[in-house]
Amino acid sequence: MLKKFGVVLAPGTRSTFERLVEQHTPSTSLIHGVIGILLKSWRHIDRQVRETDHALQRIARASDVCRRLMTVPGVSATTAVAFAAAVDNPDRFGRVTDIGPYLGLTPRKYQSGEVDHFLFFDIPSE
Asked: Domain Transposase IS116/IS110/IS902 C-terminal spans what residues (predicted)?
């Protein structure tokens, strides 16, 4: 919103961002009020995101599966919990290669003689 008034902010995180917004907001009361409302909303959302991250970390620490998944480089608590929740019961899958297509990450390929095509994956029954 500030860009419309020629204000381009330097990169910053949390308190730095808030301080920059407050310093560079035009003094017009209407604009100042709108920016104030947006900042208040941004603070609330930021707090909710931090609380969600902490909750996911607690869940991941309590799960053996999630802790094992997080030993893979680049796998955070969020990814580990999401993957564990999506797969739920790994015994539903006949092969580990069936999990990618089930999640929509990779198609499953069928090749036989002259036939060579990708299949959409059906949800396995329990």
From this structure: 66-116
Q: Are 107 and 119 in contact (CB under 8 A)?
A: yes
DSSP structure class, residue 108: E
Same structural domain, 53 and 8: yes
Does 101 map to a domain? Answer: yes
Alpha-carbon span 80 to 6, nearest angstrom: 42
- Residue 112: the pLDDT is 73
Whether 44 is in a domain gets the answer yes
H/E element, 19? helix 14-24
pLDDT less than 50: residues of the chain: 126
77, 59 contact by CB (below 8 A): yes
Has residue 122 been placed in a domain?
Answer: yes
- The residues near 122 (Cβ < 8 Å, ≥ 6 apart) are none
Q: How many domains does the chain have?
A: 2
For residue 56, give the 3-state DSSP assignment: helix
pLDDT for the residue numbered 121: 52
